[in-house]
Amino acid sequence: MTQQLPQIPSTEPELAGVRNFRDVGGLPTADGRRVRYGRLFRSGHLAHATAEDAAFLGGLGLHTVFDFRNAADHRLEGPDVELPGVRNVSIPLSDPADGAEFWQMVRDGDLDQLRSILADGKGTNRMIASYRAIIQDRTAEHSRVLHALAEDSVPALMHCAAGKDRAGLSIAVSLLAVGVERDAIEADYLKSNDAHRRYKVQRSDTSADGMSPEVMELLNPLFGAHADYLAAAFATIEETWGGTDRYFSEGLKLAPKTREQLRDRLLDEA
User: Fold this and answer.
1) Domain ranges of the chain
2) How far apart are alpha carbons 231 and 224 in whole angstroms?
3) Cα separation of 160 and 168, whole Å?
4) Cross-strand bridge partners of residue 90
5) Which CATH architecture has domain 22-266?
6) How far apart are CA 238 and CA 223, in angstroms?
7) Are strands 40-43 and 64-67 parallel, antiparallel or unpaired?
8) To which H or E segment does residue 234 belong?
9) pLDDT at site 3
């Protein structure tokens, strides 16, 4: 059994160049335990971290940063700021060629073009399909993450671009694996909608028309965290594997011993 760390919440600053940062410590499990503080963090990308941001992150004692962005994200945002002594592991959870034209239109399209791809539930449906696909098609990647956490890769920070979808699902899968209650996972996921955490929409047209209320409403399904998306991911686990235990044992090839090691790494003492 690993040594218990004190259950003291880490300071959660409003970092200048990193969005959506938080410690997921304190979340309850179904058997009465809690995620330890200082073991698992989540955020948006670190490419624009300031020197002060990097100093704070470097002081967390991180072992590994998991970066779930793809090559297109890296071209758009840049690589993560280097944190000395911290391993950075790139595990893309989406294909850079998948939807490249769509995302270019999100950034550059006019109102009529945005209506054509996002109105009448199209944006929401696209996001739900994306969440389902990541659960079904990225079992090898999620298996790699969980095995790494169980072995030695904590404290860890997981991020994608906004820190809500690819990182949000990876955090959700990690928390499910150690028995965190689904309501608690959802509550943490929805924190990505907080004003100081929410991803800043990038549009080439930053005029009043280009960022109008209608444009923002059309873009909301893409840049907001919505409970329906996470519910679709959970439903996919049930529909495909019949439950979380088979998802972890058959889908992610996680042995019972490895899940117990993961619980020892991430949870407080029983």
Assistant:
1) 22-266
2) 15
3) 9
4) 67
5) Alpha-Beta Complex (3.90)
6) 26
7) unpaired
8) helix 227-241
9) 36
